[in-house]
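Re: Re: ligand-bound prediction request (bumping)

Still looking for help on this. To restate: I need the protein modeled with D-mannose bound, output as structure tokens. Inputs repeated here so nobody has to scroll up.
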Amino acid sequence: MRQTWRWFGPDDKVTLSDIRQAGAAGIVTAVHSIKPGDLWPREAVAGRKEIIEDAGLTWDVVESLPISEAIRTNGPETEAHIATWIESMRNLAAEGVDVICYNFMPVLDWTRTDLAAPMPSGARALRFDLIDFAAFDLHVLKRGGADADYPADVLEEAAARAAGFTQADHDRLTGTILAGLPGAMEHWTLDTFRARLATYDGISADALRENLARFLRAVVPVAEDLGVRICCHPDDPPWALFGLPRIMSTEADYRWLVDVVPSPANGITFCTGSLGARGDNDLPGMVERLGEHIHFLHLRNVRREENRTPGSFHEDEHLGGSTDMVAVIKAVLVEQMRREAAGRSDAQIPMRPDHGQEILTDLSQETTPGYPAIGRLKGLAELRGVMTALQHGQD
Ligand code: DNO
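Reply:
Sorry for the wait, this slipped through. Here it is.
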């Protein structure tokens, strides 16, 4: 596996030098200042690449080249935005950046209810609490029809919790859910968020799937010509939120993705943290069955706090949590051997330690939620240890 690290650009408090010291060889980044739908000019890509290479690293993966809401909803600007996305992809390919991650989550990217949940060790972790989330949806946002989306016991607990909410609780939850996380394309207020939700009225999961298929039919043939591999990130968490359709949550969803436009260019960002929040996703099995399509790996572990979907979970240590990380890594190594035997040039799959708990000096430093230096360094070191041990004596 190629060890990479997500870097948020020159303003990131975790520097390229820090990243080299952590032992990563590759960088995962984006030109974050350009908004979805706009072009990534070749000079912007080249400039970013130069900074990375000057630090002795390589730019291995784009995360993310964002998909505009117009493309997701098949709005009037769809065709123009798809054409621009393809142009940006050409500019990336011209600079030698050939793995591009994207996602197809409507409105919100990843979602948590707590950015600093205390762990017994003293660490702090990201957490999704289903009751807080439902309390927000039902009693703060007051979304029409929301009560049909939760079982009776969740409705009851959420009502009790919301009854005890102070204004500060409202504000904290609103900030965390609607504006707290990197990757979010826009920062919402309750009103702007309600208006955006309404743009999905009448867009079923099937309609959203068709919008993704339209995008793929246009993009994948060009990607294939350019030697670029695009890879869709799963929904996080992997189920419908706020009544919005979500279509990249399960093995069946990914099977659909790779079959709808079959091509070596059309693949998967396999995020163990996102997919692992569902107990019915068999992660090592998914790597075995879908492995040839995996172009990028996010390795992270969540601890499911209850045995239901949707449910509460928190981000555990990389080798802790509910997912058998060693089994996942073993399955990836088998896939890499298959690729080597087949002579594939992408035998080494880029991986990054995804997220990390805040520990040690992270606790006194303001970093991007989920992306502290030391927690990720520890995650990468543990994952590297597993890879090294499993490969020992095999070369
Ligand atoms: C969170 C991330 C997401 C992800 C994008 C991919 O840490 O995994 O923001 O980068 O959804 O497009």
